[in-house]
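lol ok so funny story. i was supposed to be doing the assay writeup but got distracted and ended up predicting the structure for this chain instead. priorities right. anyway since i did it might as well share w the group, maybe its usefull for someone
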Amino acid sequence: MDFGQLEAFVQVAAHRSFSRAAEELQLTQPSITARIKALERELGDEVFERSSRGVRLTNAGIIFLPHAERMLQMLREAKGSVEEIRSVQAGTLRLGSALTVSTYVLPRILRTFYSHYPGVEVIVYTGRSEEMLNLVLTDEVHVGLVRSLIHPDVETIDLYEDDVILVTNPDHPFAANHQAMIEEVARQSVILADRGSSYYGLINNFFRQAGVVPNVVMELDSMEATKRMVEEGLGIALLPRVCLERELNLGLLAEVTITNAPAINRQIALIYRRSRRRARTVQAFLEVLLSIYSEGLPGEATGG
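and the output, tada:
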């Protein structure tokens, strides 16, 4: 019993005509007849009765029809799934990523994505979250990985929290107890992100809400440069945890808990155009992201 036999049977049953079924399937009437006879041989019973008034189902045909329709539907769905995988494997994904995400988070995401879809071409654009939002709105990228944004024309799916922590040189006095009060932190030489970065506003607001003014000695537009400055004892900094994994593991930097202030964090999200149908590559990427972050990977989240 094959797809062609089932398809011929269902079409003849629907049209009550061998000739109409042949037209619908773009086959000759003898081909339809041959398929029906082959099906009847396999079933061991006739499925149609012919008369001067046309074709009608036998009792066996009536019983078999819903099963045939379900089998056809399952076969079509299976074929569609295979075709979808093929189209994903050969597709393109244009991805916009906030700067810190692209450096410290995206490589791990893409490693997992490529393990499932090695044939997909991924084109990555990087910049600040607002810039990536504009690329999504103008359809220059399919999706963006940015800090969580609210916009009427984009769908936002929150993925994970971006934790920002205080780090110092291991020889700094704070490193001995791994804790300090916000007032003490503000009196130290503080290194901030540059004013164009969303981190600048986030951290500045953190000090403002605590009622203290930090002693800012530098503003840098590079996480890597900031870490090197802290390593050399030129200041302390509040940085996203994800960019500190290597330095903390090697003991090059020390994490310090601020005891009398709330933790600093924010949501990082996937965004895409609300009014656009998701391409198969986008759906595949979303499924990979949700599989990763449904497991709640600690310390693997950040923004730009």
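The longest helix spans residues 59-89. The chain has three domains: 3-89, 92-160+266-293, 162-265.
back to the writeup now i swear
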